[in-house]
Amino acid sequence: MSGEGDQPQAIRKLKPGTLVIASHNEGKVREIRALLGPYGIEPISAAELDLPEPEETGTTFVANAELKALYAADLSGFPALADDSGLCVDALNGDPGIFSARWGGPEKNFVLAMESVESNLAEQGPDVSRAAHFVCALALAWPDGHVEWFEGRVDGTLVWPPRGENGFGYDAMFVRDGDTQTFGEIDPDAKHAISHRADAFQQLVAAVL
Ligand SMILES: O=P(O)(O)OP(=O)(O)OP(=O)(O)OC[C@H]1O[C@@H](n2cnc3c(O)ncnc32)[C@H](O)[C@@H]1O
Ligand SMILES: [Mg+2]
After folding, report:
1. How does it assemble (predicted)?
2. How many domains does the chain have?
3. Cβ–Cβ < 8 Å for 82, 58
4. What is the predicted ipTM?
5. Which of 5, 7, 149, 193 has the most CB atoms in a 10 Å sphere around its CB?
6. What is the CATH number of the domain that holds 98?
């Protein structure tokens, strides 16, 4: 564990019992805050604490969630919750998958990332399957190194062109099976009830809270 002298000032001011969200993705942090709200938990994000981002060297969503959570718990001395998530497209052998953030490039441009998914699909002809699913792995790590993890999923279809300004990442091209609106069009509260992140959260809440 890191010594207190190494910690940024912001961490030394945290109240006991604080939960750190081990993420630098604003859209994700907004959703996690909303999902934790009903439990009276007011977390602080790794970005707000100026914690560095670890390299995501894992080969699975769970491995990357675990390494992000452990890194933030170790640096902060507080429990940390990480989310590693992504879009898996059947016809692209599961890509972009764990590389979903990296497909947005250094500028994190998800308009370009969605265009890239679409052009890879289009190369396979008009009859290509447009089936896809989102995965969300949550890892909850304590400073002593103990970790629990949960994995959620939501299945759907990709549409083109993208629709809707809500959400983030690939939301504007994803329609959940049985729905007509994209995750970019539906109300954020509706997404919180049905998404891959909601699925993983239900498991976390049942096990931990
Ligand atoms: O690692 P952190 O700091 O949490 O932030 P990140 O954006 O790098 O997050 P990931 O490594 O987990 O990459 C996940 C990417 O998958 C996409 N993604 C994940 N959940 C999504 C959702 O609910 N809706 C749309 N896109 C999502 C989005 O583009 C994310 O950048
Ligand atoms: Mg990441």
Report:
1. Homodimer.
2. 1
3. no
4. 0.98
5. 149
6. 3.90.950.10
